[in-house]
Predict the structure.
Amino acid sequence: MSKKLLFVSIAFPPKNDPECVQAGKYAFYLNKNFDWDITIVTSKIPTLFMPYDATLERLSKGTKKIEIPIVESKLINRFSSIVFPKFLSQPDSKFSYYRQWRTVIKKYDKPDIIYSRSFPLSSTLMALKLKEHYNVPWVMHLSDPWVASPLHNMTSDFHIKYEKITFEKADFISFTTAEALRLYEKKYPSFRDKFFLNTNVYESEVKNPNKSDRTNQQVKIVYTGGLANTRNAEVFLRALKVASEKEPKILKTLNVIFAGDMDSKNRKNFESLDRLSNLQHLGILSQEESTNLQSSADLLLVIDSEIKELEKNVFLPSKIIDYAAQNKDILAITEKGSPSDKFIKKYGGFSYSFDEKEKLADFLIALVNNPKLLDQEKVCPNEYTVENQVKILNTKLLSLL
């Protein structure tokens, strides 16, 4: 008889953002490869900043769902940030999700185990409420650090209190990188036996090892994903401008394409360089369109957030795994010694720090003069396959039953 798994995640397909895709892969392959009766507790569509994407329906097809309506909008958030700023930080703007936990218990009898994914952190607090009600084991996944995050200000009493409570109540806690796991081993040494690694993943069965065809010696660089807050394209764009001034033929031989949402700061950066005829931004694409665009590239670009404190630089973007799964050359703009930098060194690619604009410009010039720089050997680490990582999670889940 199948064991009942309550899978708690606001971020879930067919909504689209990086965590939605990762949550969808874990649920899909748990259902496909192991004997689980899975019910998803997620948010209703529409959900702010997680647009509907028909190409992600395959990852949620056939799953049972309890969908919670979230009361939010850009206007409400803007008003609340001025009048009731505390509401948007307890723990985030999607707080109305976890406060409706009683809706779940009215619709669902009792699971054998709970598995939750965050961010957003309201998913974790929903799982906490359900853990306390059902009194069953709970495996909590944190995609990013919580109170220790270098990207968000989550040091209020509320966050400190609930991080500690959830770490106490959860039976196992998983992290996406070894660096994040070590960060929490140092913070909570008494809980270290609960911790394990469950990385971002790629699907080996949809891996595309084909190289693009370069024509007329043109080199195509592609970036897919959002640009906002601490992640911006300024270093790359300035390097591209410097390179085009040093070597004007770049404007004809280097084709640079960005796709995804962006904030006003990044938009200004692009507008200031609108005279670069080889630079274009396509806007928001579906997951399938993004994958197809990546497949057409010669070089895929990943841009990290600039985090100087190495101990807190624990992020490995899921897109770098997606890029590697396509057997593509990768150019990373990141800090030295970051998870992305380590991945590039292991996989094979090119990595430049945020203060290496001139070196990056020289690389772009070298690239158009010698495209064979992209013909180096590449090996996508096998541990990042969804099959391997779901097997690890399944073992942890079964051990609690």
About this structure: The radius of gyration is 22 Å. The chain is about 40% helix and 15% strand. Residues 113 and 136 are 6 Å apart (CA to CA).
